[in-house]
Amino acid sequence: MNCLEKDALGPSQAILVVGMRMKALSKLEWLKFVDRLVNDSGMEIIGVKAKGESFVFDRLKSADELRLDHDVTILPPKKVFLPVTEDLMTYDLKGQVRGERTIDDRKRVLIGVHPYDVIAIEQMDEIYLGSNIDEHYASRRLNTLIIASDIINVSERSFAASLGTHVTDSGYDLLVTDIGDTVVVDVGTKEGRALLKKYGSARDASKKEADTVKCWRSDLPTWFARRAKLPSSEWKRVLDENHDHPIWDENSKKCLTCGTCTTVCPTCYCYDVDDKTDLNLKEGKRQRTWDGCLLREFTLVGSGEIFREGVKERYRHRFYRKGAYLPDRKGFVACVGCGRCAYQCLPDIADPSEVMNSLASYNLHKTVEHPVPSVEHPEIMEDLLIPEPATIVRKQKMTELETLYVVRLDSGKELGHAPGQFVQVSLYGIGEAPISISSAPGGKEFELLVRRIGDVTGAMEKLKEGDKIGVRGPYGRGFDPKEMQGKNMLFISGGCGLAPMRSLIDYTMGHRKDFKDVWILYGCKEPAAILFSKDLKQWADVDNVKVLTTVDKCPDGQCWDGNIGVITTLIPKVAFDPMRTIAVIVGPPVMYKFVIRDLKSRGMPDENIIVSLERRMKCGVGKCGHCQMNGIYCCIEGPVFKYSEVKNIPEAF
Amino acid sequence: MKARVAIFDFASCEGCELQIVNLEEKLLDLIDIVDVVSFREAMKEHSNDYDIALIEGSIMRPMDEERIKKIRERAKVLIAIGACACLGGVNKLRNEWPVEEVKKEVYGDALLEGNKFFDVFPTKAVDEVVKVDFYIPGCPIDRNEFAKVITAVALGRKPRLPSYPVCVECKKRENICVFELGQFCLGPITRAGCNAICTSFQDGCEGCRGFLDDAKMDAQKDVLRKYGVTVDQMMKKFNFYNYRKGVL
Ligand SMILES: Cc1cc2nc3c(=O)[nH]c(=O)nc-3n(C[C@H](O)[C@H](O)[C@H](O)COP(=O)(O)OP(=O)(O)OC[C@H]3O[C@@H](n4cnc5c(N)ncnc54)[C@H](O)[C@@H]3O)c2cc1C
Ligand code: SF4
Ligand code: SF4
Ligand code: FES
Q1: What is the ipTM of this complex?
Q2: Which of A61, A209, A307, A421, by CA, is between 20 and 30 Å from A314?
Q3: Is residue B161 part of a domain?
């Protein structure tokens, strides 16, 4: 008995409901409709076209280029909303240095999007439009109508049916099904209906036509050769149980780290940003381009450290991101079963269905939980990626490598930051760098302490008082001084870590009555590298504040009569009550482990330990993906964390 | 003050220098931001007073070695351009045979004794003789990458080459992988930056930009084997631009 016969046995409510919005066009009328869109609508019409034996989304010149029988396209349609490379802004390096946002608001129609890709676009929307709306994405997305199409030919590596993504009932303006002589159209939105009315002559679909579509959809799963045995709701559990499964080792040995799997994926959204200056050095463009977590330098920071360097860790991260982290954050598995990665990975190790199937049949391994701390992030609506002009009011060299900049926004507005937050500092033609705000909240001026380490920080040092920079922010979750009230404060910092710490220390000094005893422990490589020595002296003069400093060594020619040794040698010198003290730690990555170990051995509970972590950051607003520590976005959930929130995050320390 | 740039050629086909000449209207921008003080391909004048030296070609003879060392002494920044300078390139293929045999094969019985022009040793890349600050790889170099490196130097940025393989750019251009077309390709181990020019014309990557520092050679060999490439074919392909860098 085929599907049509089955349905003939009794009326189905679903068909009746669906039937009301079902329209139909003859093949000829359908082609006319597409041609009218191409020729008369003034919009850009992008559809599926053949490229050799494969298919791609590309601009249509006429209806007969359109292929509704495609199995899958090489790249997903996300390229229309988040182009492979796009301009974020143009900048001008002559005279008054400034940047100007570029926005693409061209009206478009996208034809031939398969249901799994429609679902992937809905997921992308969640990332780019859900919070911290990305204007560049939004402008393209909201100006595009989607004409989805049911799958007619199933791609050999797709496993969409087992995830239920072979069909969809949302996310499109029109959904067409090619049933031979007729194209049946399911109207999804008012805009879709208007488009069809204006450029096509559709009639209501007959019950038989509607039934044929329904049957086609219900038979479709039998055409899939591949399937994920685990329902997607189980992926997270199985991944959590198999963090140390041998498959990560075995497969990553075969991995080329070519990035193909992330490049062709419809749900991968990470990007990199670079300033492209014209050879005339007069103007340029800030561009973003697709990036991927499989690539080695994805987590590289200025100091040369790469936070996720091993191929195994990178390879594994991709599966966890899809199957565990995004389900945690957003409630969906970030794989729609299109099979693109499986098909295009040369060693054939990228197929999520195969990897999940292997894990499913083997779960003896220890469970690693990756909880995401819940934080309310502030909404940042306008000009998300466009810096505000600001001026360097004063500049003071602190050490050989570090300079303090006093900055004021040209708008005259206060920055409005909390202690521990950061800004993205922009130098046009060079790039952006995340820098902590080292002054206490309040006032029209704020301070940045910058260590010369690479391009942006190096170029900044050459700027003079009165020169312009760009500023985005403040970003991130800072310290919460209210939560610390009534406690003793133990500040432990190393090197540059004193910069973000200073904003909180100054706050504490300004609200001295709200806190009990204060200890400030600060360590540096050598006496000449000590930052904020004036502040350190001032703080030491305040009642019940004790400042202890140490240096790793004192080279010949420098003088020092204080402690010599690493920062942990200062901890035994303070008598604190671990239950009534909050410890705040900021320093170079190596420092955390040792300091935390010593505090815990003194009986300090995890909730009382607060850290600020550094990662590579390109956007600062939870989009570009670079700052991820397992499932956590350091830029929005951090950089400040309670130790209890991150102690089980393998990539945090 | 504008930086003074000199361009020198060693053993090469001068194709890279031609790429610079071919910058067309951008060439005017180039001479707007730097002073080109020596460029045999495009001008008669020559000066020994320069900040940036661009080196094309491989080092083949003692006299080349002397010359490149002098250039290094004078230049603040030395940039190797093209596969011959960066890798030794195709010129290294002759290192497969003893120098004497090569000379005999090429020059026959001509009188070579005492003639310093024919006094060759096994081919070297520039960085096998002097320190190289930056590289602009490729055979020939990519004009846009050339402009990018020069712009970076002029702006005080560190010129960075992509640290990922050609496949990234190839996929971004939505190419059909040449393995699907029955060819084979070194794209997965070769440094990107060419915008996948060869594979975009359905030609497998030859590795002219050099292999990545962390190229996954074993994985690449597995893939080649899977697609039926013989060890002999692999060796030939690996050696073409990256002599002895892909030894099996
Ligand atoms: C939350 C946060 C706060 C910070 N606060 C300070 C501060 O107060 N003072 C200070 O001197 N430094 C601070 N840093 C480090 C600073 O951001 C880097 O040193 C800087 O980005 C280096 O940029 P560059 O162009 O000079 O170096 P390059 O090495 O030329 O940069 C290369 C690329 O890597 C990226 N990158 C390099 N290092 C980092 C990094 N650590 N974090 C994120 N992206 C990076 C840059 O965006 C750039 O694209 C902070 C970093 C973070 C994440
Ligand atoms: S899993 Fe496959 S596609 Fe992904 S990086 Fe490794 S080799 Fe490339
Ligand atoms: S053609 Fe070459 S560069 Fe392109 S994806 Fe295939 S292997 Fe990579
Ligand atoms: S997501 Fe871009 S910096 Fe965090």
Answers
A1: 0.92
A2: A421
A3: no
